[in-house]
Amino acid sequence: MYRILMATVLLMLAVVTNAQEVSREEIRGLDEQIQDVKEDVIGLTSELNRLEEKLLFPSNTQVALFVSLPDSKEFSLESVEVKLDNQIVAHHLYTYREIEALQQGGVQRIHTANVQTGAHPLEVTYFGKSKSGKEYRATASYSVEKAVGPKFVEIQIAGNQSAINFKDW
Amino acid sequence: MISRLASAIAGAALTALCAVPAQAKAPGESDPSALQTQTLRDLFFGEALFDAYQDNYFDAITGLDTELKQVRLLDDPELDPFSLHFGQAEFAVGDLELSYRMHREAGRAMEQVLNGNVPQPIKNEAAYRLAKIHYHKQQFANALHALELIQGRVPERVRSEEQFLRARVYMQLGRFEEAVILLKDLKGEKSLSGFVEYNLGIALLKAGETEKGVLELDGLGRNAGSGDAMSALQDKTNLLLGYQLMEAKEYERARTYFDRVQLSGPFSNQALLGAGWVEANAGRFDRALVPWQLLTQRQSTNAAVQEAMLAVPYAYGKLDVHSTAAVNYGQALDLFGDQVDVLTQSIRSIREGKLLEALRRKEASQVKNWVVELRKLPGAPETHYLLDLMASNDYQEFLRNYQDLNDLLERNKDWLQSLDAFEEIIALRRGYYEPILPGLDVQFRQVDARIKMRLEQRQHLAARIENLLVNRRPELLAKSDETESRLILQQIREILAYNPTLNSEETDARIRRLEGVLKFRLSREFDTRLTEAYKHLQELDTVIATLQETYQRYVRTRQAATHSYEGYTDQITSLRAGLNRAQDRIEQLMARQGRMLEQLAINELDQRRAQLESYQIKARFALADSYDRANELQEQRADQRKVEEYEQRMEQLKQAEPVANPDGEPLPTDNPPELDAQEPEAPAREAEAAGDE
User: Fold this and answer.
1) What is the pTM of this model?
2) A105: buried, middle or exposed (CB in 10 Å: 19+, 13-18, 0-12)?
């Protein structure tokens, strides 16, 4: 009896196909179209980025501040606060993935602003922890000398040394 | 039951030849042409790295794309620090496009490199990358063709990856002996540790060298290495070996491999099921119950668990404990009924669009195990049934594409809003500047004329001073009162010349003396005055420099004022039209891609439901069969008891020695058993039977 049941069950299993199949051709065609639209949107976004920069941050007045973590494999950055012209312009809390990206050599653009030519006081404060859990915090000041043309400043956070270095680009 | 699952797992394992180490994040030292750099020479390249390392491929691509276009437009590109990363960035864009599932674009880029006038090592690397694209798209013949374009040595940094890829391509094309040779050569390669051994084992099995294959996989199954990925690979290997050997009826060996699988790992359910079947096939049903009973306590949506729900009563039946088997079949039926309802509800939920709604949420790409988590949402489908489907490469690809499209849709929406804001900004600027600029321009022209005049004067003075160095003329450095005196004396001389009667020696002497004094003072002080004049000219230059700087600043600001609102209209109109066109296409594609995702999910759930329904039928028959057998056993036991009672009574009668009757025969003391009334049936028996174990 058990064998008869098994045979019945197997027969039933073989018959079960009531769902509409998705064909390989359809998948390939759709994939091609998705790639096309991605390509178009990438092109549009590039142009929109340039338009936005030209419109909102013209080179005469543009200042961009970048954060990097050189040689900080043992250090985990938790937050950074940036004051420009004595105003808090950025306060960033870092996600795990952002920390990893910085440790691998990525550079984060933390703030873009418009300022007039001349000197502008910049103050950066960071907070973070070492692998052992020791907390580090430091504050450093710098004078951003804005001339004609865009100004880029790299804020290099040397975590375990409680130091911040600035580099003009 | 056994053969279906066994072949499914073995098939899955044998076809999962694309097991590759996860190097999704920053590529290792082996591939410096990709997204990494020892020395960062441009912040914007660094920003692209920052995005790429977080898998924000779209941002990374657009960032690099923007920079590359800007550098190409420069007259002196070498002045831009980004040019130092230019070649690297071009390669990186290809890599990122590949990660962003733009295989065709990446392929085109690689083909351009192959057809271009570049050194052979770069061509070789491009050919390898092109092969990788084809492999990913499951176009194995094309992948092999691309690999055959490689001439000479492959760059050291991608040599092992290229060889590993080539081996997997051979395996996909059924050329297992060649794959074996390549994989043997790759053994010991740290970056591919575990994956080479796994593929080598599979290749040996497929090539017919079963024992060697088993031996290779056995080594990997003992110790694949540390870490979650390696533990999973180790379990997968042991599971594969267990099923392979069970199919070959080598039950003792198979059991060893099932026992090696971790009890908490992703393959533990299949391993417990397999371990049970090993014992069952060997006829040890009591032992088979141990892993199966453990398995039935696990997540009831799991296919192995559901199979175990039938396997447990099956084993009890084989052990002749039919009442317990019946109870377990009853429990299985309850579970299957519940799960069929869950699946029916899930299919309805998917058809109502709840799955896509959940997948469009931001958490879908950010939260780990989101697929499991989304089942908690009201009305969401039971995603435990979709885990295997969603873990498959194809479905992942479709899902990511769907999420990519959703991401693009939202980005474009934001841009469309931004364009509106840009237009508003432009209108505000126009409204502010247009009324005041004409007046400012008039004032500026006046100031500009005066500035030009002053600059000419300065030039004139500078020229005179320069001239005095070679042509000494002290009178040119006279002060205004001295010049006035000189001119008065000159006038007096002219008057005297015109009217000589007024002249006298004394007058003439006085005039000459005064002229002499004047000339003497000018000559004596010439050097000092020239130095003073230089100093004054320098002071004037400082003032003029400030003036010119202010002038330039004004000119720039004036230009910026115009540029801040002029010349954007056409660009914004064109971009808006482009975005709207893209939005329409994205919405259409999302609908199609969404339907496909739903269809695949419904197919999966339908299959599982059909499976459960077949289990239900089977369980019902088996339940009835168990009842029948339990009843038969009960009756046999009841008959046995009656026979024993009769024998006991006969024994007592013999011992009682009754008085003999006149006929010489003993009188009967009770009815014969067959004349006794039958006992009441089922419930009492069942209760009794339930306690018989």
Assistant:
1) 0.73
2) buried
